[in-house]
Specification:
single chain; DUF1648 domain-containing protein; transmembrane helix; about 70% helix
Length: about 120
């Protein structure tokens, strides 16, 4: 990581709303990991993951396909954070909105993840 990026990260985390959102992201990511570790041994070989497809075997996926949700959450938050760091000095409100939206997306993905996990186990 460049020194400039570290400096921008410190600057953006000095904002209370962004700091709380970042902390929420870390807690929610930890929850993803804990539930995954807890439930992984009891997951069946095929999971109903792709509800948008017509009823058939295509709806089913392996437990590894379940990892799409936490990784997607990480990618979305990272992209939003990088973009927010770039515009923070000029557009504080936009940076806040980006980070808060990323946390909201993570909450939605976590709820979907939990619903799938607890539906099948």
């Amino acid at each position: 990581m460049k020194k400039g990026m570290i400096k921008k990260l410190k600057l953006i985390l000095s904002d209370k709303i962004i700091l709380r959102s970042f902390q929420s992201f870390l807690i929610l990511s930890g929850l993803f990991i804990l539930v995954l570790i807890w439930k992984w041994p009891v997951l069946p070989a095929q999971l109903p993951l792709f509800y948008s497809l017509p009823r058939s075997e295509e709806v089913l996926g392996s437990p590894y396909a379940l990892l799409i949700l936490p990784f997607l959450s990480l990618i979305i938050f990272s992209v939003h954070l990088i973009f927010a760091m770039r515009i923070f000095e000029r557009e504080k409100l936009t940076s806040r909105i980006l980070i808060v939206c990323a946390v909201i997306v993570e909450i939605i993905l976590l709820l979907s993840f939990l619903k799938i996990i607890f539906l099948i186990s």
